[in-house]
Every structure is written in C-alpha cells, then in structure tokens.
C-alpha cells in the first residue's frame, strides 16, 4: 500500500507520478539568494501569514490524532519563558520541559540529569514544541534525561535567522540555568525533526560562533551529541532537483507546501543561501569540526526529497578533517516525517524501534568520559 506523505501529522496529497516535473537547466544551477529560491514575485507577507495560519490549524488536528494512539505521549511538566538575547528580533519564546520519573526527589537530593534539547518540524512555519512528545517518552524512559522542547518563533512572522537564534538562545539559557533545572551541563544533546533537524545542527554552530566572541556568557558545558531526523541541509539546491532525485517523487512533499515554507522563511530576497546557519552543508570544515557535537546520530527517509543531501552531510561529518562519530541510518520505504503518522490507532510502523535505538546511542554519548 502506498504511504501518504505527512507534514507533522498532516496528510498531504502526493504529486502525480505519471507526469513528473523534470528540473530545467536553470533549476540545476546553484541558488545564491532567497530571490532565486522563491522567485522574483513572491506572495505578500500578509498572504503568507494567512496561509500559514490555515496550515497551523490543520496541523493541530493532525497532531491531535497522532497523540491518540496508545501508548499516549507525556505532557510537559512545566514551561519557562526565555528572553531572546542573540537575535536582533527582541522578545521571548518558551521552552516546554518534560522530566523523568523521580525528578523532584532527585533534584532535592542534588542529582543532575542529562538533557536533550529538541526542535520541532514544520518548515520553520508550522508546528509546536510538543509535536515530538512520542520521541520524548523514550528520552524520559530510556535515557532518564530531561527533555526540553523549544517553541522557537515561526516564519513568516519571524523569518531566518530567528529560529536558529532562538535555538542557540535556548541552549544558552539551559546552560546558564542548569543548576535551577537539575541539568548536568556536561551531558547535553540536541535533537530535531525536519526543520527542527536543521536547527539541531545549526544552533550548535551558531552557539559555538557566539561563544567565541562572548565566552563569558556561558559557564563550562558540553554538548555531546546531536540526533537529527530528516533535516533540510542545503538551500542552495532547488526543490525541483531535490524532488526529481527522490526514488519516489510521488511521495515527496507537494510544491505548494514547500513553496509556502521557503517563501516564509527565506527573506529578504537578498538573503544569501550559503550561510552555515541556514545550509549546514555549506559550513566550513572548521565550523563543523568546532560547532557540531562529537556524536552525530543522523536519520534519513528513503522516499524523502531530502534523503540525498542528508546522507551527503552525514558522510562529510564522518570524514577527515571533521572526523565526527557518525551513526547514519536511512529508514527504508518511508516518506518524510513518516513517524508523525496521524493514525489514532497505533504509532507509525517502526518509529518506536528507531526511537529506542536513538536513545541507546544518546546514552553511549552521555556515558563517554
């Protein structure tokens, strides 16, 4: 049976396989600016906000169905408001904090927990911090770690680089408030899905660059691992090329949705697409070696238009001169975000096994000297 692509629990119609859209020669050229990616006449920011609002409501319904399947995912234990200090777009965003069993008693006894800081998906345009609560259940039970989910600010209201800056600010906040939260600052990890998988990578690069300029803004800490799930890694390559390269173009996300995401996030038109904070594949070897954690857990989906670029980045991270400990797995015969199935009767096939595997690898990273 053909699997229907989903975006964070939203079923989206597959594109026609009978008349695939072949990329033109212009499509194959590297994209340099946001204007190259979204066109010379993009939708108005007002239209983008209205369209994003509609998709957010639809996504809420899809995720509500996703959460109904047994076993039900946990709810956040508490939330914190985090001030934006890195971004020029001042304001606040929230983090939703999930704690393992026995947290309060252990905290009173001075015990510290590892922490996994997670970023949700949705093309930087839709989605909520709680979307990955099913994965969070495994973090709580298998890693005995605190699971922190970031409600980063969304586009089109807050286009690039606000989401990545909020991600770096969330890490900075957790490092500086580790004692208050009963977190061991030497046992941190990031994780993220889709757009959040991008932030799981780029936020650590940005934080490293920020701390090189302002080292006194954070005490001693160590981000030991990143678990990135089907991330977008390279905005300099057109969506047409990505879609045509997929082994199942009919199972990739439709152009109307990816166009909304790109037009919302990639702004203004002069924005350069080769920024390391936008396209981690374009980061220098030094940025990746210094900014990416030692352990890289990298999941891609066989039918995803992002599979190839994810696999290429995983390979690069594992090679000299970067030499990270990379654990890459391609999940066979599934589309992008397959684990966010809106089926209320059962979790997505294979998702819980892969979540458990990821937690095992995170535990290994936390246990390293």
UniProtKB/TrEMBL annotation:
- What are the Basic and acidic residues biased-composition ranges? 26-35
Keyword terms of this UniProt record: Hydrolase
Superkingdom assignment: Eukaryota
Spell out the coiled coil positions from the record. Answer: none
Segments carrying the region annotation (Disordered) are 1-42
Domain (Alpha/beta hydrolase fold-3) ranges: 116-338
* UniProt-listed Pfam families: Abhydrolase_3
User: What one GO molecular function would you report for this record?
Assistant: hydrolase activity
Q: What's this protein's name?
A: Esterases and lipase
